[in-house]
């Protein structure tokens, strides 16, 4: 009773002073209790038509084609579009959603992976006395707390260190971070704190210690963005929304309003991208949630409309996990050009970014070498000189397009809106644009409120605060132990499944094949160094994965973590998907599918090459530098005994066998393929020289062929020359 009285009293004072009244642990527990009560109340009122099994994509398409009229049709399957679908369907509106690519295939899967209010936005709000920006931060902090509650398997609090190298900055940054805590109020994840130089280096040993004064640690949230987006879309489907990926809008449908005589948007002509079949979807209201492509749909409505989207490209890179502690991020508050760089642990790797440069809207943004090198340079500025930051350590890189917008209703159309905007055209097209990943839910709520009012729809109040997402119900931090005990999975694999699928991890485990080994009993890995298993590919099809790209980029995150590993896993992924989806090896239609497995493999490789940084990685091998050609040629001919001018797997295998090293032939093919630039199954002398050059310059640091050859060479040098006859004589 006393606890409730104090709560009531502090609520009047305001959220900022609550922290002064309560202990932090009490506040956090109170917040969690309130959130649990909210989602219990929300779910109690809702029916879940597809609680047991999701309808297939074909069933979803049939619903879209055969429904006489929907209340709401949402165009766009990113975080905002999926959020709108979930908001609409839980308000008891008949809901449809179409996405021309895959769910989260655009900006929503290419973020910094943070759920945050924005420390730098708060700084600007205070320095510029900007109330709008302050409220944006406050809203985002509220949404951060909600998102961490409704998807605990996909998100978690993350401590982020802000290193300080000047004494005067310590109180300045401390005041700013404490203000961040106060704005969050009772939704503060954990209180920020100051560290001495010694303690900072203990927690982040890679940090540059020269002139380090100390550090400040604050907390934000981190998530698996693509899986979070997918969870929102799947939850909407569970509640009855008809959702379909690879379904694009060809043009908008319009009819004459009998009251005004003006044309009104009443649906869309759509095309199934996979089959080419076109059909109409009728709807009382159409919502444009297409992110960077906002203006494309607005121009379908009215060719004369002015563009409001000002796209900005943000590049991120992934480097090995040893560059950062397992559970501590780093914030560079002032880079050489005034931007902010995050340096964060993610999925056992380290993610660094982002840049912010104007760009053109494209469905296939590519990371540029200049941006990659800029990030590497900034990282070097904060890490110890003992840690050599090498270009070759970049395992993946990607570019995401942030859809900054100008308000079409503002007199000053040139000024960029810091927050999101909701606008309604003369013909009734509702557009939601801009905003942040973190605030997708509140953006969706505002959009639906506007749509309901503008189109006079009969709907219930918003119910998405506290509404648990796919896999969140029944999830616990120890769920992975049951997976190990009940199914015989490796601990690392079980932890991965639990944190990716939540309570649905059991469905994935049930599909896992027996390994034939003593341990693990089930769960064949796609690649040895990552915990992704083959049954995830089969389960991905149930989650509406239609292509191999969907699997490597968004159902798993392999393509975002290591392009080389993703490339190696592709043949098996395509093989499993081909069986699940009846893909044809010769492009003939099989049971409604016109996908060719070889074309599918090629498309996925192209995606890795252009969009995930494989191209930049490959180009490092083609750069030349001064190396001792005579010495390197002698090294080459130790393996090319017949002076053919190239090395094959047979040559390498022969030398390895001579030193009692045995490698599987398929694995050896993969190793040679890493540096086989012209993909002819052999490594020519010029390719070998380029590899050695790149290794020397640090542009390539993890070439398995270079390491293998060096090991074999050192062993041979210790033994003396090995004759061809002794090693088997060749072919």
UniProtKB/TrEMBL annotation:
Keywords: Calcium, FAD, Flavoprotein, Metal-binding, Mitochondrion, Oxidoreductase, Repeat, Transit peptide. The keyword Repeat applies. Residues 627-662, 663-698 form the EF-hand domain. GO terms for biological process: glycerol-3-phosphate metabolic process. It holds the Pfam family DAO. Gene3D superfamilies: Alpha-glycerophosphate oxidase, cap domain (1.10.8.870), D-Amino Acid Oxidase, subunit A, domain 2 (3.30.9.10), EF-hand (1.10.238.10), FAD/NAD(P)-binding domain (3.50.50.60). Its main location: mitochondrion. Its cofactor is FAD. One of its GO terms (molecular function) is calcium ion binding. PROSITE patterns: EF_HAND_1, EF_HAND_2, FAD_G3PDH_2. It is found in: Mitochondrion. It catalyses: a quinone + sn-glycerol 3-phosphate = dihydroxyacetone phosphate + a quinol. GO terms for cellular component: mitochondrion. Pathway: Polyol metabolism; glycerol degradation. Belongs to the FAD-dependent glycerol-3-phosphate dehydrogenase family. Calcium-responsive mitochondrial glycerol-3-phosphate dehydrogenase which seems to be a key component of the pancreatic beta-cell glucose-sensing device. PANTHER family: GLYCEROL-3-PHOSPHATE DEHYDROGENASE, GLYCEROL-3-PHOSPHATE DEHYDROGENASE, MITOCHONDRIAL. This is Glycerol-3-phosphate dehydrogenase, mitochondrial. It comes from Sphaeramia orbicularis (orbiculate cardinalfish). The gene is gpd2.
């Amino acid at each position: 009773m006393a606890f409730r009285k104090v709560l009531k009293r502090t609520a009047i004072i305001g959220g900022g002073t609550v922290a002064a009244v309560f202990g932090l642990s009490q506040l956090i527990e109170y917040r969690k209790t309130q959130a649990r009560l909210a989602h219990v109340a929300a779910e109690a009122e809702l029916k879940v038509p597809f609680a047991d099994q999701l309808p297939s994509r074909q069933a979803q398409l049939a619903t879209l084609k055969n429904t006489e009229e929907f209340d709401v049709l949402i165009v766009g399957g990113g975080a905002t579009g999926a959020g709108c679908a979930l908001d609409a369907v839980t308000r008891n509106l008949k809901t449809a959603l179409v996405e021309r690519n895959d769910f989260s295939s655009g900006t929503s899967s290419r973020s910094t992976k943070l759920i945050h209010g924005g420390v730098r936005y708060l700084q600007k709000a205070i320095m510029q006395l900007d109330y709008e920006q302050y409220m944006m931060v406050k809203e985002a902090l509220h949404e951060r707390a909600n998102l961490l509650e409704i998807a605990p398997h996909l998100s978690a609090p993350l401590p982020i260190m802000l290193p300080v190298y000047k004494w005067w900055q310590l109180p300045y940054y401390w005041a700013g971070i404490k203000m961040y805590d106060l704005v969050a109020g009772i939704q503060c994840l954990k209180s920020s704190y100051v560290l001495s130089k010694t303690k900072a280096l203990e927690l982040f040993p890679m940090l540059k210690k020269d002139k380090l004064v100390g550090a400040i640690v604050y907390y934000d949230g981190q998530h698996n963005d693509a899986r979070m987006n997918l969870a929102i879309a799947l939850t909407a489907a569970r509640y009855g929304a008809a959702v379909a990926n690879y379904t694009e809008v060809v043009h908008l449908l319009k009819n004459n309003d009998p009251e005004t005589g003006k044309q009104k948007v009443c649906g869309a002509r759509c095309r199934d991208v996979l089959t080419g079949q076109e059909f109409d979807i009728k709807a009382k209201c159409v919502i444009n949630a297409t992110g960077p492509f906002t203006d494309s749909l607005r121009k379908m409505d009215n060719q004369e409309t002015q563009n409001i989207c000002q796209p900005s490209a943000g590049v991120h890179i992934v480097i090995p996990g040893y560059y950062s502690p397992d559970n501590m991020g780093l914030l560079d508050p002032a880079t050489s050009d005034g931007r902010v760089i995050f340096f964060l642990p993610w999925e056992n790797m380290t993610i660094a970014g982002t840049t912010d440069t104007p760009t053109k809207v494209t469905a296939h943004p590519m990371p540029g070498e200049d941006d990659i090198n800029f990030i590497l340079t900034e990282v070097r500025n904060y890490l110890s000189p003992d840690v050599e930051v090498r270009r070759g350590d970049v395992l993946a890189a990607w570019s995401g397009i942030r859809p900054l917008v100008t308000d079409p209703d503002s007199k000053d159309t040139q000024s960029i809106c810091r927050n999101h905007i909701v606008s309604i055209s003369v013909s009734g097209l509702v557009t939601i644009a801009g905003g942040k990943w973190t605030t997708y839910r509140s953006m969706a709520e505002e959009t639906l409120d506007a749509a309901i009012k503008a189109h006079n729809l009969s709907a219930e109040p918003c119910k998405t605060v506290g509404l648990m997402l796919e896999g969140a119900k029944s999830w616990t931090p120890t769920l992975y132990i049951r997976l190990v005990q009940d199914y015989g999975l490796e601990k690392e694999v079980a932890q991965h499944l639990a944190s990716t699928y939540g309570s649905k991890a059991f469905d994935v485990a049930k599909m896992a094949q027996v390994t034939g080994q003593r341990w693990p009993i089930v769960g064949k890995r796609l690649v040895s160094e990552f915990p992704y298993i083959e049954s995830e590919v089969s389960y991905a099809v149930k989650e509406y994965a239609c292509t191999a790209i969907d699997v490597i980029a968004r159902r798993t995150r392999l393509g975002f973590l290591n392009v080389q590993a993703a490339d190696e896993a592709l043949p098996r992924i395509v093989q499993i998907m081909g069986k699940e989806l009846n893909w044809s090896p010769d492009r003939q239609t099989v049971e409604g599918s016109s996908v060719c497995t070889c074309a599918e493999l090629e498309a996925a490789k192209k995606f890795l090459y252009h969009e995930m940084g494989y191209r930049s990685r490959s180009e490092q091998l083609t750069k030349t530098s001064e190396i001792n050609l005579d010495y390197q040629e002698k090294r080459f001919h130790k393996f090319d005994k017949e002076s053919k001018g190239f090395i094959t797997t047979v040559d390498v295998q022969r030398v390895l066998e001579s030193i009692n090293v045995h490698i599987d032939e398929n694995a050896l093919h993969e190793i040679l393929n890493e540096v086989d630039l012209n993909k002819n199954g052999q490594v020519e002398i010029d390719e070998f020289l380029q590899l050695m050059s790149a290794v020397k310059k640090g542009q390539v640091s993890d070439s398995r062929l270079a390491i293998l050859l060096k090991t074999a060479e050192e062993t041979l040098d210790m033994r003396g020359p090995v004759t061809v006859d002794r090693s088997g004589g060749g072919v």
